[in-house]
Amino acid sequence: MDTIVKVESNRISSIKRRNMWNAVLRHKVLYLLMLPGIIYMLLNNYIPMFGIIIAFKNYNFEDGFLFSPTVGFDNFRYLFETPDAFIMTRNTLGYNAVFIVVNLVMSVTMAILLNEVRNRYSKRFYQSAVLLPFFLSAVIVAYLVYSLLNPDSGLVNRYILKSFGVEPISWYLEPKYWPFILVITNAWKNVGYGSIIYISAMTGIDTEYYEAATIDGARKWQQVKYITIPLLVPVMVIMTILSIGRIFYSDFGLFYQLPMGSGTLLPVTNVIDTYVYNSLVNMGDIGMSSAAGFYQSVVGFLLVLTTNLVVRKISPENALF
Amino acid sequence: MKNNRTHWLIHVIFIFCSAAAILPVLLVVAISFSSEDSINKYGYSLLPHEFSTYAYQYIFNDPHVLLRAYGNTIFATVVGTLTCMIITSALAYPLSRKSMPFRKFFTMFVVLTILFNGGLVPWYIVMKNYLHFSDNIWALVVPGLLLNGFNVLIMRTFFLNTIPGELLEAANMDGAGEFRIFAQIVIPLSKPVYATIGLFATLAYWNDWYNSMIFQVNHDNYSMQYVLQSILLNIQYLAQNTKSNNMSASLASLPQETSRMAMAIVAIGPIIFAYPFFQKYFIKGLTIGAVKG
């Protein structure tokens, strides 16, 4: 009896296997189409993922990723003994936390206000204008900031501070101003983009809500407060959670280009990404750099996984997987 | 009456925001059209004290650096964008086909690249030491920029939502092979998403300085943006080095103040001109591109 069942189940599974194989063959062109992309991702993403083990090694080129001598947690011990480890973690988390709040508030406000502009042409103009900075590279943004803050000829020192009778400030040598400069520049660059997301969410709101509210005598502000904002909350929650998932990663261009390599600013501009870059390229310290990179990748990964779980609970269609 | 006032207030707010977005760019334009003397005398200002096209004459007079950098950036942008569109869609389309075995596995293969990465160091070593993307034009095209998981997911979602399964079945019944279905049915129906991904890629290549910074040694291989960065830092560097004596005097003796701003304008020029087209597709793309799992 048992053997009959066994033979039967073997037969079924071999049929299944053959069907599977046929299905694969039927789709062979599709696999072929995927091949270049898959190969690229193997080289560009997957091999470096495994290469992350060099954080535990004293890497040298001859021995490669696999055979360089293992040093255990030494790289991490050195890294976390420096004050840099704390500073860059604090800066990364602090700036991102402020960016998330400031950009959220400003993007939503801008979207709501833009939605109130009735004239089609001015609406389009405003939207185009505020989106423009998003298309500029970090290098160009550094030029713009420099043209404002250049200590000798910059607009701020020459005109704005002068008209208030304030002495010129050496912006690139004074760390205390940079948290504000970075937050403002980041908002300047990204709020226009953020507002588009909320505007497209608002076009999805049924106009009947507003019509009913108008009939009931609700003022514009009341409509915004009791209809628009509550209906935008789910989008705000999702966007915020997604940014929290990325809170261990920074906009490298912003933190690298804007200070223009000024060493005095490092305590307030060094984030994990810039630390990894500087210790690799400028100091040639593969150990420290890869340890910091490992720290970022692993903590970042855990955060993304956690936030994705949360998103899947609230709104499955926005979850990454 | 009150309603009217709020409307005016909103316009005032937006005129302020628009000015804040545009004026810094106009400031750089104004500097580039000022005479070097007036900059030294009055500093940067939004209206040139003394109008001059000398900066542009200067940079076009010996255009070698400019042309070389422009050429590199245009090459990387054109080749990179086209390749990106092809391999992104070729990977995304099969993932949208529900009948394909192992579809879930390959989707996770793509998603994992978004969730986790090995960080800069191993990536740099693989690209530079093993694949030899170093000090050649391909280093501007291939590492990092050619394919990204987000774009694959955007395209896949688009194919899933807009290409009717019955259409593909019908084409299959009529004897069209998979490749023909993709090339002659799917691609023509998907122009909007190609435009969006192409736009993202164009921007990424045009604005890229990172690959030049980490992979290129020879100045001839720099992209436009990285040449700009070098110019910005180099003048700064000179000024800092003479800081002990008299920083403002040394800055004043450097003639390049206006010409580097002219370089910046030449670099962003194409983006500004293509901007109306860009932002239309960009906004469309964002609405298409709700990434879903």
Task: Please outline the helices and strands.
The complex is a heterodimer of chains A (about 325) and B (about 290).
Chain A: H1 2-26, H2 28-50, H3 64-67, H4 74-81, H5 83-116, H6 120-131, H7 138-149, H8 155-163, H9 178-203, H10 207-215, H11 220-245, H12 252-257, H13 266-269, H14 272-282, H15 286-314
Helix pairs in contact in A: 4-15, 5-9, 5-11, 6-9, 11-15, 14-15
Chain B: H1 2-32, H2 36-42, H3 54-61, H4 64-95, H5 103-115, H6 120-130, H7 149-162, H8 165-173, H9 178-189, H10 191-206, H11 210-215, H12 224-241, H13 243-253, H14 257-288
Helix pairs in contact in B: 1-14, 3-14, 4-7, 4-10, 5-7, 10-14, 12-13, 12-14
Folded structure, characterized:
The complex is a heterodimer of chains A (321) and B (293). With 321 residues, chain A is mainly α. Chain A has 15 helices and no strands. Chain A has two domains: 47 residues, no CATH class; 245 residues, MetI-like (MetI-like fold). Helices cover 74% and strands 0% of the residues of chain A. In chain A, helix 5 crosses helix 9. Chain A is flat, with a radius of gyration of 27 Å. Chain B has 293 residues and is mainly alpha-helical. Chain B has a domain of 192 residues: MetI-like (MetI-like fold, Orthogonal Bundle), CATH 1.10.3720. Classes of the chains: A mainly alpha (321), B mainly alpha (293). The interface between A and B is large, with 100 and 107 residues.
In short:
Chain A: Keywords: Cell membrane, Membrane, Transmembrane, Transmembrane helix, Transport. Chain A: Belongs to the binding-protein-dependent transport system permease family. With about 325 residues, chain A is mostly helical.
Shape of chain A: flat
Order of helices and strands of chain B: HHHHHHHHHHHHHH
State Rg of chain A: 27 Å
Identify the CATH homologous superfamily of the domain at 63-254 in chain B.
MetI-like
Query: Which range best describes the helical content of chain A: under 10%, 10-25%, 25-40%, 40-55%, 55-70% or over 70%?
Result: over 70%
Q: Please mark out the parts of chain A with pLDDT under 50 across 5 or more consecutive residues, or reply none.
A: none
What low-confidence regions of chain B span 5 or more consecutive residues with pLDDT below 50?
237-245, 249-254
Largest interface (C-beta under 8 Å)? A-B, 100 and 107 residues
CA radius of gyration of chain B: 25 Å
Number of continuous helical runs of chain A: 15
Question: Could you give the count of β-strands of chain B?
Answer: 0
Domain ABC transmembrane type-1 (chain A): 89-307
GO biological process, one term (chain A): transmembrane transport
Transmembrane segments (chain A): 29-56, 93-113, 125-146, 177-199, 229-249, 293-311
InterPro entries (chain A): ABC_transporter_permease (IPR051393), MetI-like (IPR000515), MetI-like_sf (IPR035906)
